[in-house]
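Support case: iron/sulfur cluster complex. Customer-provided input:
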Amino acid sequence: MSDQKKLFIRTYGCQMNVYDSERMAEALGADGYIETDTPDDADMILLNTCHIREKAAEKVYSELGRFKGLKADKPDLKIGVAGCVAQAEGQEIMRRQPLVDLVVGPQTYHRLPQMMAQVAKGEKAMDTDFPEEDKFEHLPGRHGAKKAMRNPSAFLTVQEGCDKFCAFCVVPYTRGAEVSRPVDRILREAHDLVERGVREITLLGQNVNAYHGAGEGGDWSLARLIWALDTIDGLERIRFTTSHPNDMNDDLIEAHGTCAKLMPYLHLPVQSGSDKILKRMNRSHTADSYLRLIERIREARPDILLSGDFIVGFPEEDDQDFEDTMSLIREVNYGQAYSFKYSTRPGTPAAERALVDDAVATDRLHRLQALLTDQQRSIQQSMVGKEVGVLFEKKGRLDGQMVGKSDHLHAVHVHAPDGQVGELRRVKIVESSTNSLAGELVV
Ligand code: SAH
Ligand code: SF4
Ligand code: F3S
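Agent response - structure generated as follows:
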């Protein structure tokens, strides 16, 4: 079709943004756009941005600068900024970068087609509202999601926003208040995905375990939603992320022990192991309550792989506070982790406080990462000799090789000449290298 235009989306930040990018591509797909893998031949470039740390936000401006040449060669090229930087700094983006045509926040992207009509007339469009209506109700169905269809593993956002207001975090401001999507819409979307070949669904939310969407008989918990998904034929695996320690309810812990489709992996960020710092972060849990929670989760599912997030150098963190974080890490033994140096975010309560010396914070980050890397390696190494399920996601680089994720979310390379994308096979792990495992089919 001659009027088909090409859309290039680049995604930064968390899985929620990955999901949003898919949905934006679908919304623009209904408007005649098809996706392309390079900005060079695009008619529309959309950056889906992240505001969580200063570096992430600044990257947007340098990235936009790089499109200057493209726009000079192709004056009709449209450039848009979406996501959390758009929400937080929309006006500033429009002012600092005149080549931007469109700014859209995370809660208004269902209005993209109307905004594009405005842009097509040569006007600028900006929408960073927190609208009354549910954007998901105004988006096209999932059948247009060509890109997602190539992958048997899909994301499904079930809850958005955050009411926790951790003292360092922009999410409650960029995503707005916590909202859970209704059960029937989620189940319908899950069925659509499975019909299109999806075998694994990861339920998403900034506080996904606080999910309390309207369903039959009242509000449903995340565990109840998981049990409903469990009955969908063809759906083999269920995961969820990100969880908050305070919302880890008994029924969810129990599901980890009893629901076979729920994978043995849990991302449960703690941020710090010091009660003084946790209090100043407004986390409303202690190091000890977190450790006791981990104990209960491990009782329900002994082989669960735990993952976490850590911030080092939070204002007024002293050596002892940092050592407390190191002890907590030693006690938990993480199979996966993300760690960051504290970054001051404008408008957050912690921005008022005295910073830790940067060299000290950097040194702490290196020590903490070395410990976490050691733990990750030895947990990965301990998989050798074990049998796991692997969901094949794509062909590997070697002939006859398939690549996929294990139950514990490790990347696994498998020699499987008859292997097909979307198959879930039993695999015996034979080797562990830096970032992945190697395995053989169990026949
Ligand atoms: N909702 C999730 C996390 C969202 S942000 C949760 O509550 O766990 C992802 C991670 O980024 C956080 O867990 C935190 O470790 C990190 N982060 C958030 N704000 C930060 C900041 N100002 N500086 C450094 N890291 C930050
Ligand atoms: Fe941010 Fe805290 Fe909410 Fe997570 S729980 S999104 S860290 S405010
Ligand atoms: Fe970033 Fe927004 Fe996600 S700030 S981490 S893209 S919710």
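The domain at 387-441 is CATH 2.40.50.140 (OB fold (Dihydrolipoamide Acetyltransferase, E2P)).

Case will auto-close in a few days if no follow-up is received.
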